[in-house]
Amino acid sequence: MLDAYALIRPMMMKLDAEKAHRLTLKLLKSPLAALLGGGDDAPELETVFMGIRLPNPVGLAAGFDKNAEVPDAMLKLGFGFVEVGTVTPKPQQGNPVPRIFRLMEDEAVINRIGFANDGADIVTRRLSERRAASRMGKIGINIGANKTSEDWIEDYCNGLKRFSGLGDYYTINISSPNTPGLRSLQTRDALKPLLDRLLAVREQMSKVRRPPLLVKLAPDLSPAECEDIAELAVHYDIDGLIVGNTTIGRPGALRSPLREESGGLSGAPLRTMALDNLRRMRALTGGRIPLVGVGGIASGQDAYDRIRAGAAVIQLYTALVFEGPGLVRRIKRDLTALLRRDGFTNIAQAVGTESR
Ligand SMILES: Cc1cc2nc3c(=O)[nH]c(=O)nc-3n(C[C@H](O)[C@H](O)[C@H](O)COP(=O)(O)O)c2cc1C
Fold this sequence. Notes:
- This protein is an alpha/beta fold.
- The chain has a single domain (about 5-355), classed as TIM Barrel, CATH 3.20.20.
- It is built from twelve helices and 13 strands.
- It has helices spanning about 5-15, 15-30, 70-75, 120-130, 150-160, 190-205, 225-235, 270-285, 300-310, 320-325, 325-340, 345-350; strands at about 45-50, 50-55, 60, 80-85, 100-105, 110, 140-145, 170-175, 215, 240-245, 265, 290-295, 310-315.
- The strands form three sheets. It has an eight-stranded parallel beta barrel, surrounded by four helices. Strands 5-6-11 form a three-stranded antiparallel beta sheet, with no helix packed on it. The chain has a two-stranded antiparallel sheet with strand order 1-2.
- Bound molecules: flavin mononucleotide.
C-alpha cells in the first residue's frame, strides 16, 4: 500500500479533491488497509500527553476522518493518535461543492467545507462499536456547532455529553473560518461563559477521571486576543491548546491560480505562521498548558521544530494529501534521528528547549 501510493498518486491528483478523499476513505475501509504499516515506534517517541500514553507524538489532525470512519486504519498507518471530527450535534451538509482546492504549486489546500458531517448520532454509534471491539489506539473527538443553531454554547456542551466515554480527549473547535461568526467565540467575553459551561458539563461526565479538554485556536488571532486566551486557559486550567487551525490569510507568495478561493488555507504556506503562533502561546502560557503544534508540518524537521518551540505533540493533515501514507513513517524516523543527534533520550525532554 505504501509504495502503491506512488502509482495511484497521479490519478488521485487528477480527481476532484473531495472525490479523491472519498476514494481514500473507501480504500482505508477495504481489505487493502490490512497492508498498512506505520513501522515500529522508537522508544524515544513514546510520550504521555495530558495523562494519555501515546506510542509517538505524531497525530492526525481533525478534518481527515470527520465521521470516525477510519480511525483504526489511520492508527495502523502509524499515527500516535487520531482526532476525529469536527462533529456537530445534528448532521450538516456544509457549503456547496467544490469546496476543497489543492494548490499544487504551493503544497497547500484551501477548504470551505463548513462542518459537513454525519452528526453526533451516527458518529456516536460508530465510536461505540469501536469501543465494543476494545480498540486501544487513542482517539480525540473534535466538537463543533451547527451553523443554524440558536445556541452554539449549548451545541458544544451537548457534543461533550453525547461523546462521553468515547474519546480519550475532546477538542472544542472555535476556530473554523467556515462557519460565519464562530471564531468570535475566541474573544474573552465569549470564551469565558463557554468554558464555564463546558467545565461544568465535564465535571458531571466522569468523577473518576476528568477527560482532557482542549481548545483549538485560529492562527489569525491578534496579539491581544492571544493574551486573553492564554490567561483564560491558565485560569481555567484547560488541558491543552491546539495551535492551530487553517488561516483566512494568504501568507507567502502563493503561486497557484486557486489562491483566490475563499476558505481556510493549510499546508506549507502556513508553516512559519503556525510556528510563530506556537512560540507566542508557549511564551504566554509559560509552559503551564500543554500545546499541540499544527499547520504545515511535512517533515521530521518540521515536527522537531514545533516540539522544540513548545509543542508536546504535533498533528498534520495537508502534507498527507501531497506525500501519501509513507509520510508518517518518514517523519517518525527523522524525528527520532534528530532527537538522538541532540542527545535526547525521550521526546518529552526536547519540548520547549528552543528558548533555553
Ligand atoms: C480539507 C480540510 C478539512 C478540515 N476540517 C477540519 C475540521 O473539520 N475541524 C478542524 O478542527 N480542523 C479541520 N481542518 C484543519 C486541520 O485540522 C489543521 O488544523 C490545518 O489543516 C493545519 O494543518 P495542516 O497544514 O497539517 O493541514 C481541516 C483541514 C483541511 C485541509
